Amino acid sequence: MQAAVGQLPLERIPTTLPGDDRKRVESQYLRFAGVGVQYALTILVMTLLGIWIDGRAGTAPLFLLVFLALGFGGATWSLIQQVLGSNDKGKKQ
Is the residue at 66 inside a domain? Predict the structure, then answer.
């Protein structure tokens, strides 16, 4: 079917890449999605660990703040290494 002038075509034209290019792009998207999940989980686990230690030691909010800062710093460092390191891996191969 042809669309009238000024209307969008009725058939959808896929915007995918052929073969190996598609797999490469999909793997990059999945890796970067995993980086975000890792970032959030690192901060969450470190925060919960700080809350747990504060509850056991009775030092609230000392360890919460310490482990939150460590989690945030470590997760940010890891995020930067993984995102910027992805360009270096492509150049080495």
Answer: yes
Angle at CA 77, nearest 5°, toward 71 and 83? 130
37 lies in some domain: no
Domain count, the chain: 1
Predicted confidence (pLDDT) per residue in 42-92, tens digit: 999 999 999 999 999 999 899 999 999 999 999 999 999 988 886 555 554
Q: How far is CA 76 from CA 12, 23, 81, in A?
A: 40, 28, 9
The range of the structural domain enclosing residue 71 comes to 42-86
pTM: 0.66
Tokens of 64: 């919460």
d(CA 79, CA 64) in angstroms, rounded, equals 22
